[in-house]
From TrEMBL, chains A, B:
PANTHER family: HTH-TYPE TRANSCRIPTIONAL REGULATORY PROTEIN GABR, TRANSCRIPTIONAL REGULATORY PROTEIN
Annotated SMART domains: HTH_GNTR (SM00345)
Source organism phylogeny: Bacteria, Pseudomonadati, Pseudomonadota, Gammaproteobacteria, Oceanospirillales
UniProt keyword Glycosyltransferase present: no
InterPro entries per record: Aminotransferase_I/II_large, HTH_trans_reg/aminotransferase, PyrdxlP-dep_Trfase, PyrdxlP-dep_Trfase_major, PyrdxlP-dep_Trfase_small, Tscrpt_reg_HTH_GntR, WH-like_DNA-bd_sf, WH_DNA-bd_sf
Entry similarity comment: In the C-terminal section; belongs to the class-I pyridoxal-phosphate-dependent aminotransferase family.
Protein name, as recorded: PLP-dependent aminotransferase family protein
Signal peptide range: none
SUPFAM superfamilies: PLP-dependent transferases, Winged helix' DNA-binding domain
Amino acid sequence: MARAGTLIESVMKDIESKIASRAYLPNTRLPSVRAQAKAMQVSISTVVEAYDRLVAEGCIVSRPGAGFYTSGPIAPLNLTHIGPKVAREIDPLWVSRESLESTAGSLMPGCGWLPSEWFYQSGIKRALRNLARTHSLDLTEYAPPKGSQAFRHFLQRRMLSHNIEVSAEQIMLTESGTHAIDLIGRFLLSPGDTVLVDDPCYFNFHALLKAHRVKIIGIPYTPSGPDLERFAQAIKDHNPRLYLTNSGVHNPTGAHLAPHVAHKLLTLAQASELVIVEDDIFADLETIRSPRLAALDGLDQVIEIGSFSKTVSASIRCGYIAAKQDWIEQLVDLKIATSFSGNRFDSEIVLQTLTDSGYRKHMEKLHHWLAKQRQSTTKKLINLGIQPWIQPKDGMFLWCQLPTGKNATQLARDCLSKGVVLAPGNVFSQSLNAHDYLRFNVAQCTDEKIFEVLAWALDQQI
Amino acid sequence: MARAGTLIESVMKDIESKIASRAYLPNTRLPSVRAQAKAMQVSISTVVEAYDRLVAEGCIVSRPGAGFYTSGPIAPLNLTHIGPKVAREIDPLWVSRESLESTAGSLMPGCGWLPSEWFYQSGIKRALRNLARTHSLDLTEYAPPKGSQAFRHFLQRRMLSHNIEVSAEQIMLTESGTHAIDLIGRFLLSPGDTVLVDDPCYFNFHALLKAHRVKIIGIPYTPSGPDLERFAQAIKDHNPRLYLTNSGVHNPTGAHLAPHVAHKLLTLAQASELVIVEDDIFADLETIRSPRLAALDGLDQVIEIGSFSKTVSASIRCGYIAAKQDWIEQLVDLKIATSFSGNRFDSEIVLQTLTDSGYRKHMEKLHHWLAKQRQSTTKKLINLGIQPWIQPKDGMFLWCQLPTGKNATQLARDCLSKGVVLAPGNVFSQSLNAHDYLRFNVAQCTDEKIFEVLAWALDQQI
């Protein structure tokens, strides 16, 4: 009896969690008792009893002659209920909140952005003073639907210099890079669709895609791009709708897409009508240019997005989408409907900063600082037995493997207790196979205390 | 045969449009041939033939033994395909784009915001100069997950002064008011849910809710709030999930929610677990305070949202959500996932402007200007035979009825040809029964040319 009770409860729990995560939408027919029993590998009587109890709880309803239905309205969407259950320490949202909430005293070698003093603050301040001097519509008026025309022309020239053929009318400004991806998701995805990401990839891609209730498939990332065999197999097995990637400096590995991989990848995508979203957020940190899928494809199946949160400001928000014309027109409607037309003011400051004569010089200095920091951080990590997966040419990230037997999640927990916020590998990994990896941001590794705490925490693990 | 052909095509077209609007989600089972035939009132053989042709077109697939399924991936989401087909001139998205795109020369008595010179630009400029002088994290760093603590404390005090009991931890900043409503929609709504709005209501509510693929029911709005009988009936008939409204100065009517209506409304909502989203965007334009549902309810089933785009700046973006604690925590996760954590910079400028000693004085002047403009615009409109529905106590809007037999959509089309952008009533009306109404923004009615063009356009209609 105890066993039967447990089984019924576990079936109930499974169904409840499918309702909470909206795998079962409200007012939707549940699988028949027979199908459910088969799917869950339990007896029919177990499912009958579970359904009956769920009806008693008001969680589902029985419609005579039509079967069982989820009730509506349902519980609010809870992102932490979607997808496989993971420890809070490797939950992408937890890592984001921990980094964003951290107080002045804490050290953040795991965070994804530059320290504020590495940004071109004098350029931003000049732009602010300019705006404060003029009688300017930029201070109070809504933006035109696609965003500032001057900014779109700037982006057009910038993309042309990367060999991406695009007109200014094919570009729409957004509130941020994340907002850009989110709009594309709302435009192209439906719940249940499949999306490919790199494994590892930027961890917020997981949280963002969860909010779209899609199935996420991770493609192992190699030092020259995604594993092409696995990519082809995933297309065959899952008929995915989207592939979301960084072509430039890859997050978290610092790798670059090799030209021959780019070409084959695009050929595979074109054969299957897979849309590629290429996030070019790290463009200005690149020292040697890697190919852009958007350039090879001519913005047909590839959508280019980007922002300036890594190079101008994470606080003054401005992102963009470049795509084929009819998609952009529909994305404009979607943007107006869901966020009206913002960012006139922020985009003006970002544009003035980007076109300030000092910006290029500041970027050269930044490249130099980062190169120095990559070198010194690598050395200190190797001294602790922590090995970079590759030695990146540019960017701020080092993707590193711990000594044999050490666990990154435990390490992150221990270091957090000493005020050091790390980014454990499994946060970036859809398959959760990066348990002995960490991502380091070399720009945030200037304090010696980080390495002392790391050494201490490594010693805690036998 | 011709008739059968036409019927089959119309069945195909109907199914295709349901797929385009995502009434049928991808990879989802279609109704059985028998059920479809019954629903569409056609013969079974017509449906069999339509399904077969749709299979041939690749639009749907047949799974032996399991029925017909929509294929995935599907066409992108197109907002203009969702809901009843309306003329572009009364499509909310068209009116938004027309107003946002308008060039310097055009007059915009239909637009929903103040002219730039009516804003407190000197306060904004002072805030900019302040920020340009300090070594400030606000220039480059991400915001904490809930947004600036100082701003949340300011909002807490502000809400307490409206008798809304709230802690700063129950408040989250957003990119804008529209963004706030959008996040709540993603949190609480699933496709197919029902949402109540006022009829008429702010037109972008329609566009926003379309993007959530919900069923929208309009409740007739009276000079003291929504019609309570119709509200009760709609709850009974449709079991709605949300009701979205302005309690303060109502858009587009300028009416106020009366206390007795607020109380009854809340009693009805509480009896049925209906969540109310109260948009308080016009708070600072109110001269006599109307009750807030959030105050009566204690932020249990009511969610309060707002922004400063009508009083500080539409370009410097900042909105907020106040709700019960556990909802806010989940909304923070959803915000980080879908837009990361922005608006630190903009919220700092808005906060400095709001707390600048000159802001209150500017608002007093603004109230005075608006009162004068309401009076003079009313007089000029009445001279043309255009009658305000009520004489609002405050705010910028006049909801006006045209002389008998005149059509607002036609009038808007004619005036547009002369460079005057109007807002025809049916844009605001879910039931499309406001064909002889227009919304005027008195702050945008200072140019005599508007009334000359109106007189001319009225004469065009016999």
